Task: structure prediction
Amino acid sequence: MLLVMRPDATQAEIDHVLETISTNGLHADISVGKYRTIIGAVGNEEILVDVAFEAMPGVERLIPVMRPYKFVAKEVQPEGSTIKVGSALVGPGQLTLIAGPCSVETEEQALVSAHAVRDAGATILRGGAFKPRTSPYAFQGLGERGLDLLVECKRQTGLPVVTEVLDARDLERISEVADCLQIGARNMQNFLLLREVGMQQLPVLLKRGFCNTIEELLMSAEYIAKGGNDQIILCERGIRTFEPETRATLDFAALTVVKQLSHLPIVVDPSHAAGRADLVLRLSLGAVAAGADGLMIEVHPNPSQALSDGAQAMPLAEFEGFARHVALVRKAVQDIDR
Result:
């Protein structure tokens, strides 16, 4: 990091900063200019995270030179990471389709959905057994019964399963069923939960919070990776803006920026971004063109009867055509890349 001293900083104030850097085991480089003195702290910057340099007399500002996230930074694996979820792969060169109902509701609904999305080309089944809802009176998922139904879906179709974890107390049971643990947007900065999934051996799908920056998303991923689990898939699901016509605003720029900053794959959830089923196809095509490594789509045999998020659920009968359309755009993007 760089410490820019005030023009009127005294030698004693400069010496105090130099001593602090040295005491913490880092090397200090000093550059004395006509108007400013700049001090560089060379070494492991994490050691200095809790040092209040900016509160020290004579210090004007601090400029971090390294990114605050280490394990998920692009420099760790410049070619990008590929994450294995059961038999499916998510990463560079792939367009992974993750599809299924928002909530597992009944055995028939779950099995019909699982078979249909597999036959149309999806390689990972999504389905919620535990659901975070804005209203405490809304359907909260089937819980344990929902997990049992996901086990049966996996047995019949062979599809690996991603399902959401809301509470660290449920981790052991969910890990018996899931091939990938989902951390939803509301829990993106639930740091205790992030630490817990960081100690698991299963891949984690981490959704961006609807009021969070890209750096905050990557810092949340860093919590997981720091615990020893670097099998992380990021998910862009739209952010909250002033625009009320959609549930959220899908941030296409985030796809490119994340790929510049991190080696982790990133998928897009256009269903949650749109909040409307009629927009999901177009948003998906845009996401594929922007470089998404996968799409996470909510489907339902009868959206009007869905117990959660019916308005954004794609009718199951339309998913096969959807898969064909996104495959065409994927091929076009690959041709451009070549």
Notes: The chain is about 35% helix and 20% strand.
